[in-house]
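Posting for a labmate who doesn't have an account.
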Amino acid sequence: MQQKLKELLEKRQEAIRGGGTERVEKQHEKGKLTARERIDLLLDDGTFEEIGMFVEHRTIEFDMQDQQYLGDGVVTGYGNIERRLVYVFAQDFTVFGGSLSETHAEKICKIMDLAMQNGAPVIGLNDSGGARIQEGVNSLGGYADIFYRNTLASGVIPQLSAIMGPCAGGAVYSPALTDFIVMTDHTSYMFVTGPNVVKTVTMEEVSSDDLGGAYTHARKSGISHLVAQNDKECVVMLRKLLSYLPQNCEELPQRLPYTLTDELRPKLDHLLPDSSSQAYDVKLIIDEIVDASSFFEIQAEHADNIVIGFARIAGRSIGVVANQPNSLAGVLDVNSSKKAARFVRFCDSFNVPLLVLVDVPGFLPGTDQEWNAIIAHGAKLLYAFCEATVPRISLILRKAYGGAYDVMNSKHIGADMNYAWPSAEIAVMGAKGASEIIFKKEISAADDQAAMLKEKESIYAEKFAHPYKAAARGFVDEVIIPSQSRKKLIKAFAMLENKVRKLPRKKHGNIPL
């Protein structure tokens, strides 16, 4: 028996070594941790249980039978994060460059199946050179097996992806199917076709970082939801993100202990500029409304005319969607609509209530927007709010004009509670634009057209540029003093805690993709 135990311990040590000391050192030289080091940082101390440590590939072509590494380039298993069960896989770049083989994929699929069956999040730490070319279609089939499970798990359990090295070709589609992607700056990239192929086909010369680096995807494509400066920060972000989420779609997010005190926030009475055309930072308002230091912004670098993220209010986890007047006056456009729509759908999938802060002058006009399908993309946000059954509360801070008023979680599309500050302006359009249309003849006939326009603007504003017409119709439930906003929202979310709303029976809707 002692000899057999010795053999077992030797095999374990062989698996832990991965691709060997030299390759581990190269990984460290690049500023990257190994797969096992990443898992150790991610999970609570001593909780990781590995599955499939002794798995080996089955390939004999190209003399691959002589190149065997225990684990076959991916470490898989389960453990705890803040005492909550999670499943994890971490690709090991020191073994065949982390390339995916048939058995490598089988290990990942087993973890995903267990996560689904036991209702716990799955976290993928990606660092791979792509499909293992020696295996041909077997490795491609392995990717497809993973994609299929990503799709089945969508909306059932949270799926988080960390890109901590290369992720190219077919490998990118699994992270793209998950809920959130965190990338590490300078050490990770994602693209379907690399710089060499791009140069051959289009004659463009571009680096891997410029083509698909962390900030490229954070700012331009929006694929990267969060950017970390290194592996350690990436792991911290994953743990923090998970803290706002439930284990699965059947559970509620964890509620932190909170003792109610004086919830008035006098600063809110003074944050809006005197002029309705003047910009301000909506994040200052978010920070005053939610629990201290609890706002965790998502996709901060992309489409910054809308702000999304998680926060807590009296210990409850919520999702925040807010127009940002500091960027493009807070208008809705193609990118901001897509960004917010996907976030709203995620929150609805996992029972995260929604707080919507509205200050929107409308949709961005122009040929670029129309030709890039602002109609369809704006409809995505509309669709997302309409089908959301979680508690939904809107607070209109200032402008709520035209169709954008409807889209931003209005009462008409199923919002539970709609509040407005006295500064709210709810109308088809701004006073100036409306006056130019309604009073066109009088303005044209006037000797002093500018003075006449100003006079008519004042008349229109007095009639419509306030929240009381909407409140009179019940479209706004209450006009509130800004400093009382947090207090009102705490009570409203508590009141909606047991909300039940069911959609019509159907296979699924046809969202305008």
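Reply:
Got it, the structure tokens are right above this. The chain has 20 helices and 17 strands.
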